[in-house]
Amino acid sequence: MTRPLTFLRSLLGTAAVLLIASLVIFLLIDAAPGDPAEIMLGTSAQPDTLAALRAELGLDRPLMVRYLGWLAGVFTGDLGQSYTYGVAVRELIAERLTVTLPLTLMATVLAVVISLPLGVIAAARPGKPEDGLASLFSQIGIAVPNFWIGLLLILAFALKFKWFPPGGFPGWDAGFGPAFSALVLPSIALAIPQAAVLTRVTRAAVIEVANEDFVRTARAKGLSRNRALWRHTVPNSLLPVVTMLGLQIPFLISGAVLVENVFSLPGIGTLAYQALSQRDLIVVQNVVLLFAVIVLVVNAGTDALYARLDPRLRARK
């Protein structure tokens, strides 16, 4: 009975967090300056025309009525109609996610592929040139913003060598190759800062575990340094790495706002930026709520992965 109760408690807690998050999102966005009706019609619009548009958009209704109406729509899958694009918000977000989700996935995989070997090698050879190179990479990756990295990548690999397109997205209908090629440079720009952080975390975790008694015991029994490193040290160093990776995925999605604009990608980040600048409140509300849902899903996935990596957590359940 313990596991069902734990799952139910976790589910109720997640629902409560989402409810609070939705209310905070709605209140903050509603308090933002600017009148959507005035932005759509212009400052020269007549008062009666503005009033008619506000009524059509539902902006003349009380605050809590609008919030409850939006919340009911979220639960039924009706996210409303975009003021700017004139289409259903659900369709708009679904279309943009076909760009942002593959971009985020590519950046995540790339960050892990770069950081784990680099961090382990740096920890295995502290004070050596490999450690120095890893430290230099971490410092540069953390210090340089991802949009600036994106601009450098465009100058080098798009404009000079012409290996990749400088921007835009042809769509998956154009074929996997052209679509994948359009996401390579943006994914690198997103991945490098995250890989820099993960490299530092991996190095510190491996060094800490390498000093544990069970690793010294394995070495005393005749296990070689490399076998002890990969068999005992690295697997037991993954918990802090998984923690940091779980924290970084939401930052990757939010970082896509800048990177997608640099590369002119029609993703969810570009949609959020455009909707915010045009005061398309219904789009902004749903996009930010989607970000909150992604954060909660990633946290739940991180907890599940924790249980797989650490048997002690499974025993507690």
Could you characterize what this model shows?
With 317 residues, the protein is mainly α. It has helices spanning 2-31, 36-41, 47-57, 63-76, 89-124, 129-143, 146-160, 176-210, 213-220, 225-233, 238-262, 268-277, 281-309, 311-316. It has 3 domains: 1-32; 34-78, no CATH class; 89-316, MetI-like (MetI-like fold). The mean pLDDT is 81.
| Helix content percent band | over 70%
Instruction: Give the CATH level 1 class of the largest domain.
Output: Mainly Alpha
- What class do helices, strands and sheet pairing give? mainly alpha
This entry's quaternary arrangement is single chain
Q: How many domains would you count in the coordinates?
A: 3
Ranges where pLDDT stays below 50 over 5 or more residues in a row are none
List how many beta strands DSSP finds: 0
What is the second-level CATH architecture of the largest domain? Orthogonal Bundle
In short:
With 317 residues, this protein is mainly α. It is 79% helix and 0% strand. It contains 14 helices and no strands.
